[in-house]
Amino acid sequence: MSQADAGQRVFQEALRKGDTEGLRSLLQGMSSCEFNVNSFGPEGQTALHQSVIDGNLELVKLLVKFGADVRLANRDGWSALHIAAFGGHQDIALYLITRAKYSSSAL
């Protein structure tokens, strides 16, 4: 197993558990070559999509801080903002709108 595969597996496991502090440590300690914060999991979601589904604003903010792309669509064509709005996560939707407004490309 390559270092990138191992890093990605550790990242996905911490995400699955909703371990915000563990993910913070992981993201601060790993380089971008060890895992991809925008990779798609087996369910067709990125870490950001899954965090929005779970309604975890703190984790959403952390992932965006470390490069999660708010514009990516999941395998069903839904962006994180679509998921937040559909799921009734107003705080996350407002945060994502704010992030999109200040990014180079709007949603």
From TrEMBL:
Gene Ontology MF: a single term: enzyme inhibitor activity
Protein's UniProt keywords contain Ribonucleoprotein: no
UniProt keyword list: ANK repeat, Developmental protein, Notch signaling pathway, Repeat
ANK repeat segments: 43-75
GO cellular component: cytoplasm
GO BP annotations, alphabetical order: blood vessel endothelial cell proliferation involved in sprouting angiogenesis; branching involved in blood vessel morphogenesis; Notch signaling pathway; regulation of cell-cell adhesion
Similarity field: Belongs to the NRARP family.
Its biological purpose: Regulates independently canonical Wnt and Notch signaling by modulating LEF1 and Notch protein turnover. Stabilizes LEF1, a pivotal transcription factor in the Wnt signaling cascade, by blocking its ubiquitination. Involved in angiogenesis; involved in intersegmental vessel patterning during development.
PANTHER family reported for this sequence: MYOSIN BINDING SUBUNIT, ISOFORM O (PTHR24179:SF21), PROTEIN PHOSPHATASE 1 REGULATORY SUBUNIT 12 (PTHR24179)
The protein's name in its UniProt record: NOTCH regulated ankyrin repeat protein
